[in-house]
Amino acid sequence: MPRMSTPLIVLFIATLASTLYAQEILVKPTAAVKVCPGAFPTDLTATDCTYTAGQRALDFVSGSVTDQAVLGATVFGLGAQIIESPSEWKRTWKGYGQRVGARYTQAVGKGAAQYLVGWIAKDDPRNLAYRDDPKVITARSKATETFARMVREPRSEDERAKAAASFSALKHDGWSRFGHAWYDVITVRRSAADGQGKRIPAFSRFAGEFAGAYAGYPWYPGAENKFMPIGERAAGAFGTAALSSFYTEYKPEIARLTGAILRHGKQSKPTAGGQR
Amino acid sequence: MKTIGTALIAILLALPNLGCQVPLKAYRLNHPAIEVPPPLPLSASVVPAATADKDCEIKSSICLAFIELDDMGEPYRKGQLDTALRVIREANAAAAEAAPDAAPIVITFVHGWKNNASEDNGNVKGFTAALREIYGRAGGRRVIGIYIGWRGDLVSKYMPIARQFTYYNREATAIRIPGVTLASALTQIAATAHENRNSSVTFVGHSFGGLLLERTISEATASQIAQASIFEHDAIKADAAAVKAPQEEAKKALRQVAVEKHQAALLATDARPDLVVFINPAGAATEAKQMLDFLTGSQLSFQPSTSDSHISLNHDDDRPLFVSLSSTTDLATKVALPIGHYLPYVKFKLYGSFRSLGGSPDEAYSLKCYDPHKKPPYSEEKTKSEGAQAQGSNYLSSAPHTQVLQSHVMLKAVSANEMKVASTGDVIHFTNSKAIAGCDRQLLNQEHPGIVSTFRLSDTNTCFAVQEKTDRCNGTPYWIMELDPDVVPDHGTIFTQRFIEFLIDTFFTPSQKGSVLHRDNPVLKVSVQ
Fold it and tell me: What's the domain range around A226?
């Protein structure tokens, strides 16, 4: 009996030692992922994803009533002043005042409608990047888990190659990202504590754009208050919503690009791995 | 209409002073140390919030103490520091009765712009959650958080644009606050915590808090390092003299001197933190360069304490004393900082305040390099082609975004055989697919040496690695690198499991054995050429 147990003990110690000193980091089984809209995965402060009334009010006031709206109206009013749009308003202080006033009224109208419709629909308009989408995170985790398991376990070369290919395929996500950004423009989630609210059309956003366009009604000359010019104004305003979603999606690329533009002085390129 | 335009501008400018200003006040005078409920088991769905009503007690597992400073850097009440020190002493006393492994973990956090110590502040909530997360990973050790509050927020969040214009004002405050009050408070925190030599002390500064912390701690730490070196040197000299001394009495006296000097060196060492982390620091690289120059000039390495006082050439033994990290997608330090610093830059330039590369030796600016693993370990880079950049360029960039100062790079697995470098987007190839599949440091190192750590994100399982930059100039214990957006996505999102996992796996897990977040008492060793 002692002779039998000795190899077993040696085997046990060897197994334990290999576990203790192994350099490999084992993958954890894929668990349920919760990501709040507008937040980052595993954000410790985002425990309740509900888009609260306070948050909605803050977004409305800070975006459509106070200084941000005033600045937006002033800057875009200046642009309109330069191109003299609409032509009925001359390039005078009065004309500039009309342009700024019209834009500020539109901003308040847009924000108010968005706030009201959003509050009724209980939606959550915050954007989420494709890479942070819980479904994408789960898919990545599963692919990594499968790949690691296939390489570790005795499997056929074919199986390993397939797992490696499906893992590597995750990096080709260009169209998925582009589509996700658009999807986030035209849809919103219902506000939910777990962040998994049902997707619904972005009624609040559409209502906001049209309400904003119509809010300029008392300011604009008659020719500008027909359905087509109003539609154009709404579509223009909708562009800012699209920009916001695309900014969320392409922030890494934008940061890299702007950082490179603003970089001062020559920077030595860091090397890694292969250049060693 | 002229009047309307003028009135609009006047209102815009006046609003911050018409009730939209965040008042100058302390928020935590009544409850300077609160208890943070420990995390609940995974099955529980409700996360309890920290309550301002419950003061920290001796039996509290997690405590959060506040030290608040005004716009001039003076404390609102000295009692806040005393309370923080009392909490640390109580935790040390409780740990002394338990196993040595039970030594407390002390983390001091300095917040940045647009934050303060108010109850509804995002950083207070985030830091509280982070303490809870760390406690969950620390094997039952007590966790003490100390939140350094200052008036980082000047204008209400309802005025987002006016708030942006407080940049220069708050930057000036972050530069003004470092002084005797904060420096002595941080020294006392470290020294008190190290009354138990197994306690670990970490200081973390975020954004302008990073600038504030760097300005405070660099001077104190440099002075502590210098003191410890001198005392240690004196101790060695006294020991050597004792051996040679002819009379027994003289020998005894010299040995006593050696013991006292060694004790003094130890006290100086204990008065500094074990690790200082600057995350997305909003300070110019010129701030970091002074400490880098000091460490380079002293040719110091931070390595586990062993009987051998020489620097180990094993890369695994290298530990950071300072870490400066920034996300590659942190637009605040990558884009806003260069823009914000441009006006002062022009002013400095007009006054001829910047030194340039090359030129006459009495005014030329140069970059000194040190890497104990290189031969020779010390060099001086002078030209642009050698990677050095002018002083003015350092002023226009933060240290982590200045590539010549970076010591490490972060790699992320993007396919079965490829990893991407976060700072450049370059892709490096691995032939052995087991390396990435297993996130195996040893296998990764076989193909591309210099990988100092690997870790996986718990949610995506993605494998990451931290690698020493091969042609680096900075081989000091001041590690500088850019982070992948998957770990830190922007300027403000730092209280995440992902970032905490990265910090623990990279900086708090000894390469050999030992438990996570264990202090292995590293010491500064001087390079011998």
Answer: 48-129+175-252
